[in-house]
Design brief:
Rossmann fold; globular; binds thiamine diphosphate; binds 1-deoxy-D-xylulose-5-phosphate; binds magnesium ion; thiamine biosynthesis; Transketolase_CS
Length: 641
């Protein structure tokens, strides 16, 4: 029999449920091998999936998915679930154009009842499902699987507060691997560690086995006895119980002989209200390179399965994140009031470097973007200069804090918005598409976007010096353009852009990192005898009114360019031009190039840029069409879907 024969017989969870319980460890081993092999060719999130292999097998074995709803928090650990739910044949297309999503997706499978990728939504969604089920008088189960890192977010507590007081039956599996992307932070993490290190943890190993012997079946009496037994032996004094949950655990999440009977009994518990099963796992489990690495192979590029060595391409230029971190460290050397805050993304934002240099001035608040923003607001009230360093997509979660706690109070919180624009393989949930739109409408904000890494340094210096009110600086994922870096950033004049190339017929006004494409398009147009100006707006707010007037009155075509959604920079420009009456004559051919009004899926960044119609060819074609060259190369850019 071939090594993967058992996994080959399992296309769907119903096949898995036909196996003998004793066969499950072997299936788990094969599943783990398949996961490692698949991710070695696609890259992606590996450590979290390795840690839930046994849990995934046990959940699909015990619960009647998809009738029972299994909701994974974040969804970055769901590759084993995808392999077992009819998607094994496409697993090597993960995160690639037209391939499987790297997260759960309702559009992809009936086994994904709720789409995710941002954390800590699973208990709320699960409770919604459970209440809907009860109102409809139906009887399926709902299981939400949430990590210890995701437990640090406010939403998880809001949901537990609601669930604990509700009579709806909801099963929450807390997958506690004592890791977030970085080591977990905060008091809750300490609470979980204390539960695990308490006596009850050591007894549960035997308790799990006892349970399986004593209560093997689905009989009501067994379930009731389990209820009593568990109450007496494996619960006690947890925060979850205080919140109205029936707490079960901790359970060894890699021991199927514990997991299966415990889950089975929880499934059959004749008790209303929510249950929390505390499962202890190891991130990266079963793959030595992952287990031994500091980040447990949370996210990897393609790698060699034997050595675990990742195929990281040699960088051509420093990353924006790296330059940001160095620039901020430089500013902080000169200004002791500068502090920096991350919401569980120290390495992704470069604040790990800042934290090494200034441990007392760097704060990882956990997955808690809302708190991060208001925490910064409080720091600013006392004269500190906080940099709230948050990915564009995750800052969405803290919008009211940005408006209510920062903007209305005119507090000088500096938002350093990394991953602004298209992010590649993480896809639709992680695109940094909206920050320009959602910030530019707020009075008093200063908004900047870096066209290259030297500009990024100037903008960090500008933010550091800006004490009057809130500011935001956006920059993309990945490498910079390889420009020379200054010794230190220079403070820029607020609201002033710069002209990089003078022309007479066409003007391209770029905001942010697509300036390179604008310059390339200008070359193409110039080669056709069409003289083209290229300007870098630097600021979306306040706008450079003089520059706008000049570009609008001295050119036949004005193209605005940004890697952001409709309602962003172009909207600000059009508003200003219209207000000044510069559109009244009807002479100017104004063409806004921004992200199309649809969600952009996973793929390579270059593919996504092409889908969005923001390549140099697209820019040139837009100018040509505006001038009546209807046979211009490039695609007609759809305004909407
Ligand atoms: C709102 C939000 N902030 C940040 C992230 C980035 N992020 C993805 S996974 C993760 C760690 C989650 O830790 P945990 O829930 O314990 O899962 P584990 O990776 O340990 O399995 C973080 C911070 C996110 N997805 N969503
Ligand atoms: C699941 C998640 O939200 C993070 O792991 C994210 O994928 C990190 O993205 P970067 O690779 O851009 O840091
Ligand atoms: Mg974790």
């Amino acid at each position: 029999m071939s090594k993967t024969a058992l996994l080959d017989t399992v296309r769907l969870p119903q096949d898995l449920r036909a196996l003998e319980e004793g066969e499950l460890p072997r299936l788990a081993d094969e599943l783990r091998s398949e996961l490692i092999d698949a991710v070695s060719v696609t890259g992606g999130h590996l450590g979290a999936g390795l840690g839930v292999v046994e849990l995934t097998v046990a959940l699909h074995y015990v619960f009647d998915t998809p009738r029972d709803k299994l909701i994974w928090d974040v969804g970055h650990q769901c590759y084993p679930h995808k392999i077992l739910t009819g998607r094994r044949d496409r697993i090597r297309s993960l995160r690639q154009a037209d391939g499987l999503s790297g997260f759960t997706s309702r559009a992809e499978s009936e086994y994904d009842p709720f789409g995710a990728a941002h954390s800590s939504t699973s208990i709320s969604a699960g409770l919604g499902y459970a209440v809907a089920r009860d109102m409809a008088g139906e009887d399926w189960r709902v299981v939400s699987v949430i990590g210890d890192g995701a437990m640090s977010a406010g939403m998880a507590y809001e949901a537990m507060n609601n669930a604990g007081a509700s009579g709806s039956k909801l099963i929450v599996v807390l997958n506690d691997n004592d890791m977030s992307i970085a080591p977990p932070v905060g008091a809750m993490s300490g609470h979980l560690s204390r539960i695990i290190s308490s006596k009850s943890f050591h007894s549960v190993r035997s308790v799990g086995k006892q349970l399986s012997r004593r209560f093997p079946g689905r009989l009501k009496s067994a379930a009731e006895r389990f209820d009593e037994y568990a109450r007496g032996l494996i619960t006690g004094g947890t925060l979850f119980e205080e919140l109205g949950f029936f707490y079960v655990g901790p359970v060894d999440g890699h021991d199927l002989s514990q997991l299966v009977p415990v889950l089975r009994n929880v499934r059959d518990l004749e008790r209303q209200g929510p249950v929390l099963v505390h499962v202890v796992t190891q991130k990266g489990k079963g793959y030595t390179p992952a287990e031994e690495s500091a980040d447990k192979y949370h996210g990897v590029v393609k790698f060699d399965v034997v050595t675990g060595k990742q195929a990281k391409p040699k960088p051509q230029a420093p990353s924006y994140t790296g330059v940001f971190a160095q620039a901020l460290i430089g500013e902080a050397e000169r200004d002791e009031k500068i502090v920096a805050v991350t919401a569980a993304m120290p390495s992704g934002t470069g604040l790990d470097k800042f934290g090494s240099r200034f441990p007392e001035r760097c704060f990882d608040v956990g997955i808690a973007e809302q708190h991060a923003v208001t925490f910064c607001a409080g720091l600013a009230c006392e004269g500190y200069r906080p940099f709230a360093t948050i990915y564009s997509t995750f800052l969405q979660r803290a919008y009211d804090q940005v408006v209510h706690d920062v903007a209305i109070q005119k507090l000088p919180v500096r938002f350093a918005i990394d991953r602004a624009g298209l992010v590649g393989a993480d896809g639709v949930t992680h695109q940094g598409s909206y920050d320009i739109s959602y910030l530019a409408c707020l009075p008093g904000f200063v908004l900047m976007a870096a066209a290259d890494e030297a500009e990024l340094m100037h903008m960090v210096a500008t933010q550091a010096a800006l004490d009057e009110g809130p500011s935001a600086l956006r920059f993309p994922r990945g490498e910079g353009r390889g420009v020379d870096l200054p010794e230190r950033g220079q403070v820029l004049e607020i609201g002033k852009g710069r002209v990089l190339r003078e022309g007479t017929k066409i003007a391209i006004l770029s905001y942010g990192a697509r300036l390179g494409e604008a310059l390339e398009a200008a070359e193409t147009l110039a080669s056709k005898g069409l003289s083209t100006t290229v300007a870098d707006a630097r600021f979306a707010k306040p706008l450079d009114h003089d520059l706008l007037r000049r570009l609008a009155s001295e050119h036949e075509v004005l193209i605005t360019l940004e890697e952001g959604a409709v309602g962003g920079f172009a909207t600000q420009v059009m508003q200003q031009l219209a207000t000044e009456g510069l559109l009244d004559s009807g002479q100017l051919k104004l063409r806004p190039l921004c992200l199309p009004d649809r969600f952009i899926d996973h793929g390579k960044p270059a593919e996504q840029l092409a889908w969005a119609g923001l390549t140099a060819d697209d820019i040139a074609a837009t100018a040509l069409r505006a001038l009546g060259y209807n046979d211009a190369p490039g695609r007609e850019r759809p305004a909407t879907a």
